[in-house]
Fold Methyltransferase.
Amino acid sequence: MRIATILLAGSAMLTAACTSLTSPEPVVLPNAMEDYVLAAVVSPARPEADTARDEARKPEEIVLFSGVQRGDVIAEIAPGGGYYTRILAQTVGPEGKIYALMPSFFASRPGGLDGINAIAEQYGNIEVVVVEGYDTLTLPQQVDLFWTTENYHDLANGDIAAVNAGVFRNLRPGGIFFVEDHSAPGTGTSATSTLHRIDPAAVVDQVTAAGFVLEAESDVLHNPADPHDASPRDFDGVSDKFALRFRRPE
């Protein structure tokens, strides 16, 4: 379903040099991607529950690392509460688009789509797509970027080869597959269903086996104090996470 409403992206953007977020004065639209991303992160449209998580999740650094560009069409796998959906929608702007790919088991729950639909009503460039399985996914168009944060380990509990093949198929040549998740180094895939983490080396092996090329790694979310022996929900602190940027060859 496509829910169109008032688009906040672009029209309310602010740079670091701008005055108050509530200023009635016209704002100067940014030109660099750094400015677009910063404007999306500091946007007053984001709820306090999201901004309270920014210190741990470092969204500005992560979005910049991912390679998102103005005008991109992005497929976001399992957006959950929409933490990144809001940021990505404003970053790509009115000429871009977000496919919010919601798993069908979520949609089948009473009110399961209420949250993501509310976000779609807030922006004009989000289309909510209910998917039976990411392994059989077919989108209306090839996208510029696939995005998954903190849920690749769940996908790895199923037919991950088919999922990665589906991402490859629905991504344009030269497009990006961005993966961020909780780290369990040296464990392969043995911790995916128990500790809800995954070995980044296993992700690299699986994604490159689908035909992607690993382009870059980021340690901006690395936490050496994490012993990797508990679920992120049970760990008393910020879990150690990795971020990987893959590219489909031209």
Q: What stands out?
A: The chain has one domain: 33-247. DSSP finds ten helices and seven strands in the chain.
